[in-house]
Amino acid sequence: AQSVTQLGSHVSVSEGALVLLRCNYSSSVPPYLFWYVQYPNQGLQLLLKYTSAATLVKGINGFEAEFKKSETSFHLTKPSAHMSDAAEYFCAVSAPNQAGTALIFGKGTTLSVSS
Amino acid sequence: DTAVSQTPKYLVTQMGNDKSIKCEQNLGHDTMYWYKQDSKKFLKIMFSYNNKELIINETVPNRFSPKSPDKAHLNLHINSLELGDSAVYFCASSLLTSPTHYEQYFGPGTRLTVT
After folding, report:
1. Mind listing the pLDDT tens digit for each residue in A1-41?
2. Which one of A37, A103, B72, B103 has the largest count of C-beta atoms within 10 Å of its C-beta?
């Protein structure tokens, strides 16, 4: 069974500050890991993914995440927050090589950015 | 060009009614999904279809019945709507035969409100 825990349901940062959104996973098989972003009243957009290649993954909009097997973590970071980063962020896990495998989502973290 | 589209975007109806949500993708994908996002923004898989065949059927009331007339469409019919069905329903798709089969593309969501 797989699961994801996102620590902190709400993170507030100032514009220009470091963004750190935490995600820990549990998986009985080597996982695929994802970060999705959801802007208000919109669907989910893939930010980045880890699929057992490089452990440091770069995504869109300046975000990156590092897969740490020893810590079962996949935290999302961005060096400098922008007002447009305010949104809901979801970490998700799936099992590779399974037909139509579902994404298992964390409960989400709301990122607020103040000027 | 819209990749994954859903209709309607908003649906307000009364308890006991029957309603359908439609999903279409023009990505050439062969696998489609329905996810439910509750009022706390928690996302959970409901169904998954591959080439019109049901492959994931999570614990969902029998009142929910997915139908896939072809690979590009996955509809969700809900009978005897209840207050607890109020949620945002997301359709997603992926291509099983692709090296990036694990990447799911989401539609904009359908906000269902049952009164």
Report:
1. 789 999 999 999 999 999 999 999 998 888 889 999 999 88
2. A103
Q: Are A89 and A109 in contact, with CB atoms under 8 Å apart? A: yes
Please enumerate residues of A whose Cβ is less than 8 A from a Cβ of B: 32, 36, 38, 41-46, 49, 51, 88, 90, 94, 96, 99-105, 107-108
Rg (CA), chain A: 14
DSSP letter at A103 equals P
SS3 A86: coil
Tokens of B30: 């062969």
Taking only the tens place, the pLDDT of each residue in B37-75 is 999 999 999 998 888 888 877 778 999 999 999 989 999
Distance from CA of A89 to the nearest CA of B (A): 10
Contact B79, B90 (CB under 8 A): no
Contact list, A36 vs chain B (CB under 8 Å): 106
